């Protein structure tokens, strides 16, 4: 996806591990519901970020990774936070999770760009 603006074109790239580390992420289950997973993401990067899915790693080593799509995707403007819920993610089955997010950049190794 490209963004039209004056200057070099912007293309959506996955965040690097350093950029991902700058996102403030808190996740877990509410005390009264061990089947609904909640996440809050704070964007400390200079441009907006989009997160579309979460990968859940099961406690059973033979189980496949479960991928849950965030509907709608999390769009997080710079300096702001967004929250989301995912149903049917059972606390007693999940060992770990990961989430890949994206931003618009001039080049893969460049910084996330501010939008006009």
What can you tell me about this protein's structure?
With 116 residues, the protein is mainly beta. The chain has one domain (2-105): Immunoglobulin-like, CATH 2.60.40. The chain is 4% helix and 49% strand. It contains 1 helix and 8 strands. The strands form 2 sheets. A 5-stranded antiparallel sheet has the order 1-2-8-5-6, with no helix packed on it. It has a 3-stranded antiparallel sheet with strand order 3-4-7, with no helix packed on it. The relative contact order is 0.31.
Task: Set out the fold topology.
Blueprint: E1 2-3, E2 10-14, H1 17-21, E3 24-28, E4 37-42, E5 49-58, E6 66-76, E7 81-86, E8 94-105
Give a short summary of the structure.
With 116 residues, the protein is mostly beta strands.
Number of helices: 1
**Overall pLDDT level:** 91
Order of helices and strands: EEHEEEEEE
Instruction: Name the overall outline.
Output: elongated
How many beta strands in the DSSP annotation? 8
Strand content: over 45%
CATH class: Mainly Beta
The Cα radius of gyration reads 16 Å
Shape-level CATH architecture: Sandwich
First-residue to last-residue Cα separation: 16 Å
Helix content: under 10%
Give the spatial strand order of the biggest sheet.
Answer: 1-2-8-5-6
Quick one: biggest sheet?
A: 5 strands, antiparallel
- Domain count: the total is 1
What class, by secondary structure content?
A: mainly beta
CATH T-level topology: Immunoglobulin-like
Low-confidence stretches: none
